[in-house]
Amino acid sequence: MTIFYARSGHGPDVVLVHGWGLHGGVWADIARGLSKDFRVTVPDLPGHGRSRACRAPEFTPEALAGEVQRVLPGPAVWVGWSLGAFVALAAAQQSPVAVMKLVLVGATPRYVQLPDWPHAMSLAVLRQFARNLEQDYVATLTRFLSLQVAAGEDREVLRRLRAEMFRHGQPPVAALRDGLQLLEREDRRAALAAITAPTLVIHGERDRFAPVEAARFLAAHLPQARLQIVRGAGHAPFLSHPALFIEQTRGFLHG
């Protein structure tokens, strides 16, 4: 079964990859803005949104990237948010000819702390979140969404995230569990030096999931990367600052 995807516009290909628990609809405003210059493909990853009945052979960034490439096999710019950034990085690593440029949003090479990686949440916090998910599904997802919004940020961002998460029904617990396990185990730091695609790293100044130091690490260790920090933004700067996001992304893609 092929994953669901929406497509709009004409021009060079751009693919927008969503984060954990959400679906492609979260990109609606960005897709509309970019489709004036590009052909924009917005997939729902396996187990998410309208691809809830579709399962990847395994829930790894490489397998998820492969599912996206089944509906967009040619060269494209990959824009990945949060977990979707792992997918975009995997695509650039395993299919460099197919990834013309990268835009990484709210991204980090690793979500869980290690002795040599303090720029992340503790393993205990992530595992407690996973336990809470099993016990109180809706409350845990609601708290997860509230953490993506920076203090003082427009509450419309939180309302939009909540609406999108449940727009196509409750996300399947199996897919959410698989996603949390991916976030726990993935460490892309060693792979960054081999990714040669020009990259724009867009990151919220007040991101509580991926501290801004993680974005600085990405920008410093990817061979062709530059960093755009969005002041006052949390984990979803494309929702809180859509005009700035579209301006920066369009300029980078045309450049």
Overview of the molecule:
The protein is of the alpha/beta class and 255 residues long. It has 10 helices and 7 strands. The chain has a 7-stranded mixed β-sheet with strand order 1-3-2-4-5-6-7, sandwiched between helices. Helix 8 (212-221) links the parallel strand 6 and strand 7.
Q: Estimate the helix proportion, in percent.
A: 40-55%
How much is the average pLDDT?
92
What global shape is seen?
globular
Using DSSP, what is the number of strands? 7
CATH class: Alpha Beta
CATH architecture: 3-Layer(aba) Sandwich
Q: In the CATH scheme, what's the topology name?
A: Rossmann fold
* Poorly predicted parts: none
What is the terminal-to-terminal distance? 37 Å
The overall number of domains is: 1
CATH superfamily label: Alpha/Beta hydrolase fold, catalytic domain
Sheet having the most strands: 7 strands, mixed
Secondary structure class reads alpha/beta
- In angstroms, what is the radius of gyration? 16 Å
Number of helices: 10
Strand content: 15-25%
How do the strands of the widest beta sheet line up side by side?
1-3-2-4-5-6-7
The H/E string reads: EEHEHEHEHHHHEHEHH
